[in-house]
Write a structure and sequence with these properties.
It contains seven helices and ten strands. It has helices spanning about 50-60, 80-90, 105-115, 120-135, 150-165, 180-195, 240-250, and strands at about 10-20, 25-35, 40-45, 65-70, 75, 90-95, 170-175, 200-205, 215-220, 225-230. It has a six-stranded mixed beta sheet with strand order 6-7-8-3-9-10, sandwiched between helices. A four-stranded antiparallel beta sheet has the order 2-1-4-5, covered by helices on one side. Magnesium ion binds near residues 51, 52 and 173.
Length: about 260
Amino acid sequence: MTKKRIPTVEIKNLKKSFFVGKEEIPVLKGLDFTIDFGEFVVILGPSGCGKSTLLNTILGLEQPTEGQVLIRGKEVYSMDEDGRASFRRQKFGMVYQQPNWIRSLNVIENVAFPLHVSGTHHQTAMSKAKNILYLFKFDKFEKYYPMELSGGQQQKLSVCRALITNPWIIMADEPTGNLDTVTAEDLMYDLKVLNAESKRTVIMVTHNPEYERYATKLIYMEDGLIKNIKQKSKPLISSEEEERVVDLAEGEGIV
Ligand SMILES: Nc1ncnc2c1ncn2[C@@H]1O[C@H](COP(=O)(O)OP(=O)(O)O)[C@@H](O)[C@H]1O
Ligand SMILES: [Mg+2]
C-alpha cells in the first residue's frame, strides 16, 4: 500500500487583513490551495493583489486573520515567534528582488553566512558554500565582493545563499524585477535547475506572464482571491526522493 503523501504547503481558508487605525483592509480574502513536493509554482497577479502578503504568511512572518498554513503537516502559526523563525531558517530559502547580502563579506562568506547564524562550524560552512558555488558554476567569483558583481551575478549569489541551509522550499518574490531580459532568463534557468536537479520546491511570485512556462502549477491572483489554478504538469518526484531532500534539510548533508 502506498503511503498518502502530505502536501508540502497547505493553505486553508487563509484571510489576512491589515488595520490602519480602526479601518480594516482585507488583503487576502479566503485562499485555499496545496503545493506538492518538487513543484515549481508561479504565482501571478497585478501589483497590489496580495502576492507578497501571501508569501510572507506562508513564511510565518504575517499572522493570518483567519485560516491555516501547514508546511508538511506542521501548523506554522501553532509555533511561537522564535519557533517560526527557526523553522523558517531551516525549511525556506529566500530570493528577493532587492539583494540582501552583506557588503563587507565576499561571495563565499555571504553564501556561508546563514550557516554561521545557525552555529555551524566555520570549515563545514565554507566547504558547503564552495559546493554550492561550484554547482552553479560561480566558484570563480568566490573572492569577489557583492559590489564588484553585475546585477545578474548578485542574484546568482542570492540563489546560492538561499540553498545553503538545504531548505525544502525556495521562495522568490519578484526575483527578476531588477534584471534585464537576458539576465532574468539566466536566473530563471538557475531556479529551474534547483527545482529539477536539486529537487527543491520553488514558489515564485511575479507579475510577468513570460515566466508561466517554467511552472508546474500556476496560481492566478486578483484582488486578494485566487482567480484560477492551472496544474500544467505533475512533478515526477518519488516519495524516496522527497524523503531524501527532507532528511538533508534536517541534517548536515551537502546539496
Ligand atoms: N503592512 C501593511 N499594512 C497595510 N497595508 C498593507 C501592508 N502590507 C501590504 N498592504 C497592502 O496590501 C495590499 C497587497 O500588498 P502586497 O501583498 O504587497 O501585493 P503584491 O505583492 O501583489 O503587489 C496592498 O494594497 C498593500 O498596500
Ligand atoms: Mg509584492
